[in-house]
Amino acid sequence: MSLTLATIRAAHTRIHPHIRRTPVLTSEALDAAWSGSLFFKCENLQHVGAFKARGATNAVFSLTAAEAARGVCTHSSGNHAAALARAAKLRGIPAVIVMPSNTPQIKVRNVERFGPRILFCEPTQQAREAACERIVAETGATLIHPFTDYRVMAGQGTAAIELLEDVAAPGLDLVLCPVGGGGLLCGTAVAVKSLTPTARVVACEPAGAADAAAAFRTGRIEPLAQVATIADGLRTTIGEENFALIRTHVDDIVTVSEASIVAAMRRLWETLRVVVEPSGAVPFAAIQEGKVDVRGKRVGLILSGGNVDLDTLPWLNK
Amino acid sequence: MSLTLATIRAAHTRIHPHIRRTPVLTSEALDAAWSGSLFFKCENLQHVGAFKARGATNAVFSLTAAEAARGVCTHSSGNHAAALARAAKLRGIPAVIVMPSNTPQIKVRNVERFGPRILFCEPTQQAREAACERIVAETGATLIHPFTDYRVMAGQGTAAIELLEDVAAPGLDLVLCPVGGGGLLCGTAVAVKSLTPTARVVACEPAGAADAAAAFRTGRIEPLAQVATIADGLRTTIGEENFALIRTHVDDIVTVSEASIVAAMRRLWETLRVVVEPSGAVPFAAIQEGKVDVRGKRVGLILSGGNVDLDTLPWLNK
Predict the structure, then answer these.
(1) What domains appear along chain A, each with residue ranges and CATH number?
(2) By the number of CB atoms within 10 A of the CB, which of A274, B142, B212, B308 ranks highest?
(3) Which site among B22, B273, B312 would you substitute to test the A interface, given the most A Cβ atoms closer than 10 Å to its Cβ?
(4) Structure pTM?
(5) Pairing, β A37-42 against β A24-25
C-alpha cells in the first residue's frame, strides 16, 4: 500500500459523511500587509478541533468487518487520540487510547467524551509503544499509528483536496503546511502535486523541533536528543514512510522561532477571529518571520488545529 | 420606505460582491449537551469582524451618485464605524466617523485602516449627534445611522437569509438574535418570519442593558438611566423604527446575566474554536442560562461579532 491521489480521493468519499468540509477563510488585512493572497484552510474548525479527524476516520472505516470487531488502539497525547475515539464510536467498535501520564487535562477530556478505554503510561515513546503492543497482543485490536499509516495519510490529504477545490481559478502558487510526524504533510503534498503540479509545497517546523528540516538537508532521519517548542503537535520525529514521501513531494522545509509562533497565533486570532493552536500557527509564522516570500502569490495555509487551554494563553504568560 | 423581505433580498444582491457568505458552524458536543441542534451563523467571521459590514455596505451602495459624491458620516464606537468606513472606501467616497473619546484603541485601529476622517467627541449621545449634524450641514454627507436606517436593517437581514438557506431541511424552529439598537434583530425577524413563518424569533439582551425587554413588556421605549454590561455592542437604546418592527415580528425578549455572557463566550471559543465578542455570545448565554428551551429543537443563533481585546479576556480578569 502507498499514498496516491487515488487513495486520497477514495478516503474523501469514505469519510465525507463523518467530517466537516471546513471553510477556507481569507483576510483583507493580511493580504494587504503581505501583498499576497492567503487562503486559510480551517481544520481548527474540524470535528475534535483538528485535521486528525480525517485520517483516523479513514483508517477506521477502511477496516474489514472482522478487523473492526476487534477494535482499534493508538498512543497519542491528543488530537489523534480524540479523532480515533470518535471514529471508533461512529463505527460502533472498541477503542483503546494509550496516553502519557502528563497529558494536559483539556486533552484528556477531549478524548474521554467519546468513551474509549484510556490507559495512562510513563511519558516516554518506549512506554507508549510497549503499552500499545500489549493491547494488540491481548485483544487483536488494530494499531492505528498517528502518521506512518497510509490510510491516515490519505485521510489527512483530503483537506488539501477541499482547499484546492474551494480556491477559485487560477488556483494556488504555494501551499504551506506544518510538519510533525509528517502525516498531514504527506497527504497535503501528494494531493497538491497531483492536482496542481506547478504549486510549491513548503513544510514549516518549529526551530525547537526541527528534525524534519535536518533530515531534509542530510537525507536521513535524525531524531533529536531533545525538543523544545510550544507547538505540542509538532514535537514528534518524522516517520520513515513519511520521510520517503516528503523527499519526493515537498519542495522545502523552513523553521520558525518560538516568539514567532506566539505572535502568529495571536495575529490569526485577532484578524481571522478563529482559535488556532500553536502548531496550526506555524505556517503563518513562517510568513511573518520572512522565511517564505508570498508577495504576488496565491498561498494556501493549513490551520491544522484549534485545541488550546484558554486559561493560559502564551502571549499573556510573561 | 420600510423593511420587507423584498428589500432584504435586494440588499443581498447589492452587497453580495462585497461581503462574505459566512459559514454556519455546528458542534456535536453542544448538541449533545442541550439535546437540540444548534446552528451558529458566524458573523464574527464577516469583514470587519461583525454583521455590521452588511448593513453599512447596503446603505452606501444604495446612495445615488450625487449623494455618494458628498460622502457619508456616522457616530459609532466600533463595528458600524469600521463597516461604514470600509463600504465608503469600496465605493470610493468620503467618510467621516464620529467616535467617543473613550473608544478602545483596538476599535479605533479597526476603523483607521479604511482611511476615513475620524472626529473624536465627548462620550455622550448628545455630543455624538451634534458632531454628526455639523458634518452633515458642512459637507452634505448622508448620515448612516447604525440601526434606525431601513437600508441598514435590510443589509443586516441578509445574514438570516443565508442562515435559512444553509440549514438543511426541515429548517429551523427557533432563531436567537442579540438586541442592542435593533438593526440586526429587525432584519433577522422580518427575514425569518417571511421565509419560515412557523419559526419563533427570540431576542436576547444583557440584563444590565435590558431596555428592549422592558419596552417589549410595557409597549413603549424607556431609555435606561444607566447601563452596565460587558456586551458593549448592546448598550444602546432601541430605535423607534426598530421597536415598531420588533413588536410585530419578534416573539419574545429574554435577558441574561453578565456571568452567563462570559461563560457562554468562553464555551463558544472552546467548542466552536471561533473568537466571539461578548455581544455575540448573548444568544448562547440565554440557552446556557436556561432562559430558552432548545430540547428537540433546531435553533439558529447569530454570532454577531468577534472583535475582542485579546490582552484582557474577561474569564482571566478575576
Answers:
(1) 5-51+149-316 (3.40.50.1100), 53-143 (3.40.50.1100)
(2) B212
(3) B273
(4) 0.96
(5) antiparallel
